[in-house]
Fold Myo-inositol 2-dehydrogenase/D-chiro-inositol 1-dehydrogenase.
Amino acid sequence: MPKPVNVGLIGAGRIGSFHGETVARRLVDADLIAIADPAPNAAANLADKLDVESAYTDVADLLAHPGLEAVIIATPARFHTNVLVQAAEAGKAIFCEKPMALTLEDADRAIAAARSAGVPLQVGFNRRWDQAFAEGRAAIDAGKVGTPQLLRSLTRDPGPFGADPARIPLWTIFYETLIHDFDTLLWLNPGAQPVEVSAVADALVRPDFRENGFLDTAVVTVRFDNGSVAVAEANFSALYGYDIRGEVFGSGGMVTMGDVRRSSMTLFDKNGLSNDTWRRDTDHFVQGYTAQLASFVRASRTCKVEGPTGEDARNALKIALACIESVSKKQAIPLR
Ligand SMILES: NC(=O)c1ccc[n+]([C@@H]2O[C@H](COP(=O)([O-])OP(=O)(O)OC[C@H]3O[C@@H](n4cnc5c(N)ncnc54)[C@H](O)[C@@H]3O)[C@@H](O)[C@H]2O)c1
């Protein structure tokens, strides 16, 4: 057994805490040795909980921690690129949560920084690691659905929606939610290039915030150069659970992926039959999140990224940016 990879966590919020726990408790070949978060006590509290030796409020201090080999970046999206560049310059292997960047210039800057430092860069499109999605892609690769013609990917976050819309950055539905679906659609249509994007979006969950530019519901169509057409959709408040699905229909058949039911246990009683549903991403995707970080740990050793790369993050971002333009101009946007 090789020596465990020494990992640092940057950002100890909701998903960072979960990723930290994955490294500390669910992976055998990695050690979580340091955590950084500027919020008072955020890093220290998580470090206490996970028995991690060092907590910092400054990212530079974490990057200087002796023996640190790899970092997980789980800060809010607007900080990703700068922190990523800083970590690359410090020579660390990088796992960055999505979106890696909010502009193409920043995406290029991130990719260039990792390349010139010679460090692996993997991005947090965790659906690729979910067993159903991975098997769907394997079936497509094996030619079992023929040539893809219609693709579908959807994200319905669990309701009731309880966040304060005023604290959610503009265009989050594209930058942070549907970006997963864009990566999934690109990945499930291997070799095809997106050529046109059209999006509609609205505030249907919180119409009282529509005037502020808040959007909680969106439908996107993406046309590809192999003739196939994809639809992505999102809504922030599915009252029945956390509903993530994908579908690829082709000349030879169809694959469907994702199930909102927690398990195959079905209750039959006087009301009929019923199932429990997933309520949180960190429950639904434990296997996928763990597999993606196991892969990152391997990449930290081999410098070979098996999962989504900086270029993949850029490709998904390009669609998100086209969606924003499409909603703003109310027209389809050709991709160059
Ligand atoms: N892949 C997924 O399924 C998934 C799920 C949830 C969130 N995310 C992504 O992860 C990122 C974080 O989301 P979250 O819900 O955990 O947010 P959060 O607000 O709960 O946590 C962010 C944390 O980062 C800290 N922080 C802020 N600036 C920092 C900096 N410069 N350096 C270090 N730490 C900093 C904050 O104090 C906070 O503790 C977002 O980009 C989000 O889109 C991905």
User: Anything to note?
Assistant: The chain has two domains: 5-119, 128-285+315-334. The chain has a mean pLDDT of 98. The first helix runs from residue 14 to 26.
